[in-house]
Write a structure and sequence with these properties.
The complex is a heterodimer of chains A (242) and B (151). Chain A has seven helices and two strands. With 242 residues, chain A is mostly helical. Chain A has one domain. In chain A, helix 3 runs antiparallel to helix 4 and helix 4 packs antiparallel against helix 5. Chain B has 151 residues and is α+β, with helices and mostly antiparallel strands. In chain B, strands 1-3-4-6-5 form a five-stranded mixed barrel. The longest helix of chain B is centred in the N-terminal third of the chain and has 26 residues. The chains are: A mainly alpha (242), B alpha+beta (151). At the A-B interface, helix 2, helix 3, helix 6 and helix 7 of A face helix 1 and strand 6 of B.
């Protein structure tokens, strides 16, 4: 792992990996969405609205994967003081928040025709809204720490601790439909078993893979930007002193 | 005796903190397990009936063959069951598309003194199964189940 600790080496790999992830991700996600939106037959009960599945479910997974990334990177930053970990955590926040917002919006649109309401305060929906607010808090905190350069490593540590503490919400989201009676249905895909018919499941998994690659591409691109910003700032400071 | 590496000390400290945090989260979730429920199932209502007139949500399955439309065309009567208990429900209004017999429903309303639940609002609950409409693409068992469900 410490082989990647060198930012120059990371940048060399990220330079060719970023466009690769974007290209493959666009291809897979676009293909799966086109397939899902036009070729897949309607669901027996929900009819045509089932097509929202192909955006809603991958966004939900990535919204949660985003915070999982933040938590793991924060742990690595706190324990091993890995120089890229904090940057990776910060880079995952905005794409994670975006997918969380997409999941909430598509879920709300889907709920209106199927359940008969835009929004309810059940366990799953509420805990997912909390995830969005956690992202907002994290982004604001990271922005404030960056501006306050004097905070230095101390500010960065506070963000990492927030990233770790916020991770408690992830298992709560996952279990919310099992622990509590909720309007949201229980999980369809559990430990290798799926109650989603293969006609829906195959495009769903391809879309999820495509969105994940796009997510990875955005994180790498943002990490490169953050590294460049840090370098510029360091150079400016050196010039100011000289 | 050699001192512990700071890296390992941080790892141990963080592990303890995380275990404590997860424990706290689980305890909180456990304490909330009744309060955070979105609805009561018929067994809860029968075991501990809420006082008449208090707003509650009742959730369960619409009993097969129980939906009856009154002569006025907009009032429906049906039974919500959870395998342990059954509660008769009356609702006036337009039902969501997914409101069908044998499927999940959440009714918002109140208990009447007679033991009947009067709903102001109905929410349909989707189950975790996604099956295409075309019978040709279903397995035999699924097709049989679907035919039985729509009957």
């Amino acid at each position: 792992m410490h082989g990647f600790a060198n930012p120059a080496r990371f940048l060399r790999i990220a330079r060719w990996l970023t466009p690769l992830l974007f290209g493959l991700g666009l291809l897979l996600a676009g293909g799966a969405l086109a397939w899902g939106l036009t070729q897949v037959p309607p669901d027996r009960l929900m009819g045509e609205t089932v097509r929202i599945l192909f955006i809603h479910v991958p966004s939900a997974w990535l919204g949660m994967a985003g915070w999982t990334t933040i938590a793991i990177a924060s742990l690595v930053e706190l324990v091993w003081r890995h120089p890229l970990a904090g940057i990776a955590a910060r880079a995952a926040a905005v794409p994670g928040a975006t997918f969380t917002a997409i999941c909430l919006a598509t879920g709300s649109i889907w709920a209106r025709p199927t359940w008969g309401t835009w929004w309810v305060w059940d366990g799953r929906l509420t805990s997912f809204l909390v995830l969005l607010f956690l992202y907002f808090g994290y982004i604001a905190l990271a922005g404030a720490a960056q501006k306050d350069a004097a905070g230095g490593a101390g500010g960065s540590r506070v963000i990492a601790i927030f990233g770790l503490v916020g991770a408690i919400n992830i298992p709560i989201i996952n279990r919310s439909v099992v622990w509590w009676n909720s309007l949201h249905q229980p999980p369809s895909i559990t430990m290798g078993k799926s109650s989603i018919d293969a006609t829906f499941l195959v495009p769903l998994l391809i879309a999820a893979l495509g969105f994940s690659l796009l997510f990875g591409g955005v994180v790498l691109a943002r990490m490169r930007t953050l590294l460049a910003e840090i370098q510029t700032e360091a150079r400016l400071r050196r010039k100011a002193i000289a | 005796m050699s001192a512990i590496k700071p890296k390992h000390q941080r790892l141990v400290l963080l592990t303890i903190a995380l275990v404590a945090l997860i424990g706290a989260g689980l305890l909180a979730a456990w304490a909330l397990r009744n309060q955070a429920a979105y609805f009561y199932v018929p067994a809860d209502i029968v075991a501990d009936p809420p006082e008449a007139g208090r707003a509650v949500r009742l959730g369960g399955m619409v009993e097969k063959g129980s939906i009856k439309t009154a002569p006025d065309g907009v009032t429906i009567d049906f039974v919500v069951e959870d395998g342990k208990a059954r509660v008769p429900v009356r609702f006036r209004g337009i039902t969501p598309d997914l409101f069908i017999e044998g499927s999940g429903v959440v009714a918002e309303g109140r208990m009447e003194p007679g033991g009947r639940f009067v709903a102001d609002n109905l929410l349909a609950k989707h189950d975790e199964n996604y099956v295409p409409r075309e019978m040709a693409e279903m397995t035999k068992a699924q097709a049989t189940a679907t035919v039985a469900e729509t009957r």
